[in-house]
TrEMBL record:
Protein name: Uncharacterized protein
Lineage: Eukaryota, Viridiplantae, Streptophyta, Embryophyta, Tracheophyta
Length: 452
């Protein structure tokens, strides 16, 4: 131990010190009056603090992480490095649809990992073909392209739309190459997908991004139809339910107006179902609730249950524009990922499973309105199935922190004033009750944070 001993009336000598220290007498002739030991070692870090300190040294600072180090999970529960338990209403941002450690998913991953993990797209693999067959059989699509993430799926959709328009207009005149996106949209962080994302603070630091994107008000059918009819639009990108933007749902009339205008002008209609698709709404595909079919649909988040995958589903007329070498990926659609995705897709697409999501979503929305609706800070509870937003009249950050301290993990959306609730689709009604109770108990923190 490195310490300093003080003896009143005696010389001062640093104990066990290796340096040269000058002895000094205090002007006191009595006996020793006191002895103090001061530990000058830095305090020992907890396991979580050590991880956070290491992260600050070695990772690029692109995430303002919550001060929690998660080490394990089971079902809808997560556990941190200190052993604290959390009810997970985030699903890894709408990814872990089957929760944590689903046995069928674990079996699919471990069995495939022991056989074949990666060979690239130079060769055929059975899990990739089988997953594509399932996606085609359960959707409007004729063809599938696999990527590694949602933003890559949207990048591919941009390229497919551009190539389709060039081949559809071979007479030498300029083909339609522009795009429509909407307010509150989020389509990804790579340069093409970023250009389709409405929030300026995402785009501004990296401009110039891809040109030719016009942002229109989400739900404004008239403005969209007028622009589509101009003949300049290659494709319209729209989320049937906006996740990051604040849990805003389209109407059937809006999507039908886009569909009709695209058909008339030769533009493509692209649905981004990266967050709202694959059972999240109680339908396998969010657009099924509206009965309006796209030309292209992008998927990602829950498809492989936590492993990285994206997919573009498209009609034959669009797919036929692509040739060998027009697009590709080294890792996309590997056998390990696709085998995991089949386990997820097979469970989620079961009609009984989807019916349970619808039932639990209605139940959760009702209890949230009952428990939270009377609070003056709560403006609206909205959403479909198990993608629900609670809009506040103040920032939700204080509520997020308070809930985390009480054992509930939630997300924000919109302008930071929307609580986004996207739990695992397997969550029980009892766990939904618990989440609503914690939210109710923590609401008073909004008064405290707003008064500061």
């Amino acid at each position: 131990m490195s310490s300093v001993h003080l003896f009143l009336g005696q010389s001062i000598t640093p104990a066990a010190a290796g340096g040269n220290f000058r002895r000094r007498k205090f002007p006191f002739n009595g006996r020793v009056m006191a002895c103090a030991t001061v530990d000058v070692r830095p305090p020992k870090l907890t396991a979580a603090e050590a991880v956070m300190a290491a992260e600050a040294r070695v990772l690029v600072g692109t995430y303002a992480r919550a001060p929690v180090v998660l080490v394990s999970g089971k079902g809808c529960k997560l556990f941190d490095a200190e052993g604290r338990e959390y009810l997970d209403m985030t699903s890894g941002i709408a990814v872990n649809a089957l929760g944590h450690g689903d046995p069928d998913w674990v079996r699919a991953v471990t069995e495939q990992a022991s056989v074949l993990t990666h060979v690239s797209n130079v060769y055929y693999t059975i899990p990739q073909v089988e997953l594509a067959k399932r996606l085609v059989a359960r959707s409007f699509a004729d063809r599938v392209f696999f990527s590694n993430s949602g933003t890559e799926a949207n990048e591919a959709a941009i390229k497919f739309a551009r190539k389709f328009q060039r081949l559809s207009n071979p007479d030498g005149k300029q083909p339609p190459l522009e795009f429509i996106s909407f307010t509150n949209s989020f389509h990804g962080r790579t340069m093409g997908a970023l250009a389709l994302t409405s929030k300026e603070h995402y785009r501004t630091p990296f401009e110039p991004v891809m040109p030719g994107v016009t942002f229109l008000e989400y739900g404004n059918s008239q403005a969209a139809v007028e622009l589509i009819r101009s003949g300049k639009i290659a494709a319209v990108f729209v989320e049937p339910i906006q996740g990051e933007g604040g849990i805003y749902s389209a109407t059937r009339e809006f999507l039908q107006a886009l569909r009709s205008a695209c058909d008339d002008a030769g533009s493509l209609l692209v649905y981004d179902e990266i967050q709202c698709g694959l059972g999240r709404t109680g339908f396998l595909w969010a657009h099924e609730a509206y009965g309006v079919i796209p030309d292209i649909m992008t998927l990602a988040k829950p498809l492989a249950g936590g492993l990285p995958i994206g997919a573009v589903l498209l009609t034959e007329k669009v797919a036929s524009a692509m040739n060998f070498g027009d697009h590709g990926s080294t890792f996309a659609g590997g056998p390990l990922i696709c085998n995991a995705a089949m386990a997820v897709l097979d469970k989620i697409s079961n009609p009984e499973f989807l019916a349970s999501v619808t039932k639990k979503g209605k139940y959760f929305k009702e209890i949230l309105m009952q428990k939270l609706g009377g609070n003056p800070h709560v403006r609206e509870v909205r959403g479909m199935g198990l993608i629900i937003g609670v809009e506040l009249d103040v920032s939700a950050s204080a509520l997020v922190d308070a809930c985390r301290n009480a054992g509930l993990l939630i997300l924000t959306a919109g302008k930071g004033n929307v609580v986004r609730l996207v739990p695992p689709l397997i969550i029980s009604e009892g766990e939904l009750d618990r989440a609503a109770e914690i939210l109710l108990d923590c609401l008073p923190v909004l008064d405290e944070s707003n008064s500061k």
